[in-house]
Amino acid sequence: MNKHDAARRAFLVRAAVGAGAVAGAGLVPELNAQMDQHKQTEAPSAAYPHPSGTAQGAFFNHDDAITIAAFTERLMPGAPDKPGANETGVLNYIDLALAGAYADLQDFYRRGLAQLDAYCRKTHKTSFPHLGPAQQDEVLAALEQGKATGFTWPTAQDFFNTVRTHTFEGMFADPVYGGNKDFAGWRLVGFPGAQAMFTPIDLQNQQAFTRAPMVGLQAVASRPTRKG
Fold first, then answer.
1. Total structural domains in the chain?
2. Which of 24, 76, 90, 145 lies 20 to 30 angstroms, CA to CA, from 171?
3. What is the pLDDT of residue 14?
4. In terms of pTM, does the model score above 0.90?
5. What is the dihedral of CA 120, 92, 172, 184, to 10 degrees?
6. Taking a C-beta distance cutoff of 8 angstroms, is the pair 156, 147 a contact?
């Protein structure tokens, strides 16, 4: 992993630590005004084989799934003993979110991905997943800086910022939402999850919390309730 990749990983890790990790979803940028103008009622696409496995997708078609997998992996690249976006299930998280809680962003993603593909083919003569890492980084930089041409709605910056936010969520949200596979994101930042109790000493501790195993919402919900 080169210095650029390491810096990108460090940015997301610092963001997660600063937020106390992400306990749930709900970090979508403020795009409501644009959604009111462009929202449509199209049905989700047919199921597709996930690029990372055999599971069936809920929203993305095969080509869009491959693009999002490549996009998010460049935002959070993996390294030895340090899982990236693909290993932690970020694609699955975004796919499930767009079929459910983030359904109002379906057209946003469709249009954004179409504009991204057109920009890559015009600039590099091929689609985003087929570019090398250096060229993919060039595309991401152009999006982030608003220099990518051909974007109307969403704008290049809005699309980049939204996918980056969802990558952050998929890495560090509770695994019940489809990402953070095997608590990999939480392990990366030392976040223990929803513990039954934290002592005053725990709350004052500045080090990674390691006293108890990591616990997610699904595990907590499946526990039998105590009857008095």
1. 1
2. 145
3. 59
4. no
5. -110
6. yes
Is residue 25 within 8 Å of residue 98, measured between CB atoms?
no
Which of helix, strand or coil describes residue 155?
coil
pLDDT of 163-181, one tens digit each? 999 999 999 999 989 999 9
Q: What distance in Å separates the CA atoms of residue 90 and residue 116, rounded to the nearest whole number?
A: 19
**Residue 227 within any structural domain of the chain:** no
Task: Give the C-alpha separation, 177 to 197, whole Å.
Answer: 23
Q: Residue 63 is part of which domain span?
A: 3-190
Nearest alpha-carbon partner for 216 in 188, 171, 169, 177: 177
Domain annotation covers residue 219: no
Continuous H helices in the chain:
3-18, 32-38, 62-75, 90-98, 106-124, 133-144, 156-172, 184-189, 200-204, 217-221
**C-alpha to C-alpha distance for 105 and 95, rounded to whole angstroms:** 11
Q: For residues 43-67, give the mean pLDDT.
A: 67
Give which of 102, 142, 98 is closest to 119, Cα–Cα. Answer: 142
* Residue 224 placed within a domain: no
Please give the structure tokens belonging to residue 54: 């055999």
- One-letter identity of residue 135: Q
166 in a structural domain: yes
